[in-house]
Amino acid sequence: MARRGSVEDCKGRKRSFSANHCFTRLIVCGECGDQFNRIHWNNRGKKSIVWRCATRLRDKNGCHARTINEEGLKAAFVEALNRIIAEKQEYLLQLKRNIESVLTGGNSESTAEIDAKLADLERQLVAKAEEHEDYTDIASEIYALRKQRDKLTMSENARNDYLKRIEELESFIDEQPTKINNFEESLVKRMLKRATVYEDRIIFEFHSGVNVEVNM
DSSP characters for 17-32? Predict the structure, then answer.
């Protein structure tokens, strides 16, 4: 409920949230940065499902991004995955570099070290309080360390999630001896972070940090 109420578009406007389709909120306009919306289209009696930039929907002169047929979008996603499978050695090497970057780019100070500092400062604060001495500086340092610890914990969680995403794509590549023939929503939900639509191509950005460009 909180997420539904807090979703904003690229210009800060409130948007209703819907997770009815696997591509919802993942398709982005390469021209204006707005989201693409899913539309049931009836063009001269021919019904189809398409994705169109939300800015263009509100104002046809506000953005000139093209409309994407949903079947074409699905086919492009499958092509992106097949390209990863076909060039698995190259992508596995890239994933290895991503892992090394995550592991070596960590914070110099661990949560355990911060906890030890906090424990010591808290003992000093209690001692000063019992002696009726000023402990303002110690309290400020404790507050700053607690903020640092919260930030570090969030960074560690994000790093662990990123590593999990990388391992997931690694496993997927290893498990695919041949190309994929059919589109699966579960693969979008598990792996895709964003797809940016340009005039002649779509760039699929995966949670693992791999990007694949598909011309269409």
Answer: ---SSTTTTTEEETTT
Measured distance between the N- and C-terminal CA atoms of the chain, rounded to whole angstroms: 37
AA identity, residue 54 = A
Residues near 82 by Cβ (< 8 Å), separated by ≥ 6? 179, 180
Task: Decide if 63 is inside a domain.
Answer: yes
Residue partners of 40: CB distance under 8 A and separation at least 6: 47, 48, 49
Question: Is there a contact between 195 and 77 (Cβ–Cβ < 8 Å)?
Answer: yes
The Cα 184–Cα 182 span in angstroms is 6
Single-letter code of the amino acid located at 139: A
Closest by CA position to 39, among listed 54, 25, 28 = 54
pLDDT tens digits for range 84-140: 999 988 888 888 887 777 665 555 566 778 888 888 888 888 888 888 888 888 888
Sign of CA dihedral 185, 191, 195, 200: negative
Number of domains in the chain: 1
Containing domain of residue 21, as a range?
Answer: 2-84+183-215
Q: Would 90 be classed as within a structural domain? A: no
Rounded distance between C-alpha atoms, residue 199 and residue 138, angstroms: 58
Pairing of strands 68-69, 36-43: unpaired
Q: What is the pTM of this model?
A: 0.67
Q: What is the dihedral of CA 183, 213, 165, 96, to 10 degrees?
A: 130
